[in-house]
Structure to design on (504 residues):
């Protein structure tokens, strides 16, 4: 037994009436209705109707089945054997409660931290105070996110415990019903009523049992579908927590140091290739987050617009995600100035473009899709590679670049995603802004129209390749990388002499 107050022990899911068929079904159904249980109604209610039918068909067999069910649920070693076979819902519930306890403690600590920092810094001003406040805010947000994640995991385990219990009950009831029916049939046959009558009773009982199992299996499938929805949400929260903790040390970005040597790959043409654009090689010293931090610490910039103190990073993210038509003049002007400071004109700058699967494959196969770019061309929206190098999973790319646009070929749950990292000698990049922000772009949501992507966690400036009758040509040496859900990346192709060579 753990001495940790947050750790919950196993919960006994067997009630005084569990295993007793109709009685237990009534109790379970009542509880489900009262608590608004998420589980499909078939799992809670069908048992009542089927047990009622079984009782009418064969009252003796039903009573025997209830007795057998009670024994299976309460008497060892049968109880333990059944749990070993079907899973122990009680242990899962204990795990769920432990997570819930930990989540509650984390939420309390996050709240206390926010309160403590606010109280301690009351009446204090200056750049050091602002920097400390921002860091403490990020820490509180990260701890709060952990608490939210813990709550989600607790909820998920609670759902799983319900499904485990359903499987347990199905197996228990099937065993008890079979034993009850067979015992009853033998009793009827021994009384002289006759074997034909016994067979009729057993057949009707089997039909009722089959209907019960079929309905519960259908409900189980529907409930698993709801569980899948929760797992998607859980995945979102895990990414949120990951992002929050990335942001604790300096905005979630790599350290600004000299890039290391490249990796060496063997190519299909028999030649080696040493990478230039692996994530660890992307030079982050000219990344836009430096400009973001400088702007957020530029008190004069904000005072000139009547804002004091400056925005925090989270406030900036919130403003970026406001519809441009709802921005105040002050918000629009500040956002414009912050974005203007990020423009890069360096011809050696490395840019990155996320690719739908078909386009990525067309590049590698050196074919041009209808209305698509040539194998050595890039079009559309791109990002400055140092700004997005820390975004390294398909889901992170999907969310931070807002690839959920209408008719998108990207999927939030893609196992992999491919990107091109390239340089160009003739590229001209526009800041895609709506007329409200002084631009001409009129794309629909999730396009923000303010020069940034609609990321909820990161400040990601976006660019659009400007081409009027001409396409932007990539330099030889452009690299295509594949990101996986685990956060790893691998080289899949290199641009050479106008065509792509695959990695062997």
């Amino acid at each position: 037994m753990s001495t940790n107050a947050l750790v919950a022990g196993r919960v006994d899911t067997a009630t005084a009436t569990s295993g007793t068929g109709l009685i237990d079904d009534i109790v379970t159904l009542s509880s489900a209705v009262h608590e608004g249980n998420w589980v499909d109604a078939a799992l809670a209610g069908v048992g009542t109707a089927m047990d009622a039918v079984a009782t009418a068909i064969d009252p003796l067999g039903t009573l025997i089945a209830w007795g057998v069910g009670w024994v299976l649920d309460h008497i060892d070693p049968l109880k333990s054997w059944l749990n070993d076979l079907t899973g122990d819902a009680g242990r899962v519930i204990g795990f769920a409660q432990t997570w819930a306890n930990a989540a509650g403690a984390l939420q309390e600590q996050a709240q206390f931290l926010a309160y403590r920092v606010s109280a301690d810094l009351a009446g204090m001003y200056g750049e050091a105070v602002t920097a400390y406040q921002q860091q403490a805010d990020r820490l509180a947000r990260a701890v709060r996110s952990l608490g939210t994640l813990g709550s989600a995991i607790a909820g998920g385990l609670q759902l799983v415990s319900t499904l485990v219990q359903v499987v347990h009950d199905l197996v228990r009831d099937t065993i008890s019903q079979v034993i009850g029916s067979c015992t009853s049939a033998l009793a009827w046959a021994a009384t002289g009523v006759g074997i034909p009558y016994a067979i009729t009773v057993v057949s009707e009982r089997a039909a009722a049992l089959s209907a019960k199992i079929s309905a519960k299996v259908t409900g189980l499938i529907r409930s698993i579908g709801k569980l899948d929805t929760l797992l998607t949400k859980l995945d979102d929260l895990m990414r949120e927590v990951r992002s929050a903790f990335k942001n604790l040390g300096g905005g979630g970005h790599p350290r600004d140091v000299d890039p290391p040597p490249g990796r060496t790959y063997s190519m299909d043409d028999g030649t080696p290739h040493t990478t230039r654009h692996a994530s660890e090689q992307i030079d982050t010293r000219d990344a836009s987050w430096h400009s973001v931090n400088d702007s957020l610490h530029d008190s004069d910039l904000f005072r000139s617009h009547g804002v004091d103190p400056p925005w925090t990073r989270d406030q900036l993210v919130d403003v970026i995600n406001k519809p441009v038509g709802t921005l105040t003049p002050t918000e629009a002007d500040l956002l414009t100035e912050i974005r203007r400071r990020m423009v890069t004109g360096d011809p050696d700058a490395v840019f990155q473009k996320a690719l739908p699967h078909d386009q990525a494959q067309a590049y590698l196969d050196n074919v041009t899709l209808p209305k698509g770019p040539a194998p050595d061309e890039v079009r559309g929206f791109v990002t400055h590679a140092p700004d997005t190098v820390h975004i390294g999973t398909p889901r992170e790319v999907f969310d931070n670049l807002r690839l959920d646009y209408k008719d998108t070929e990207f999927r939030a749950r893609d196992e992999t995603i491919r990107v091109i990292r390239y340089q160009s000698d003739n590229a001209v990049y526009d800041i895609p802004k709506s007329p409200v922000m002084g631009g001409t772009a009129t794309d629909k949501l999730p396009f923000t129209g303010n020069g940034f992507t609609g990321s909820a966690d990161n400040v990601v400036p976006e660019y659009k390749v400007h081409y009027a009758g001409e396409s932007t040509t990539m330099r030889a040496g452009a690299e295509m990388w594949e990101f996986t859900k685990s956060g790893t990346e691998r080289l899949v192709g290199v641009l050479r002499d106008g065509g792509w060579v695959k990695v062997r």
Notes: DSSP finds 14 helices and twelve strands in the chain. The chain has two domains: 22-246, 264-502.
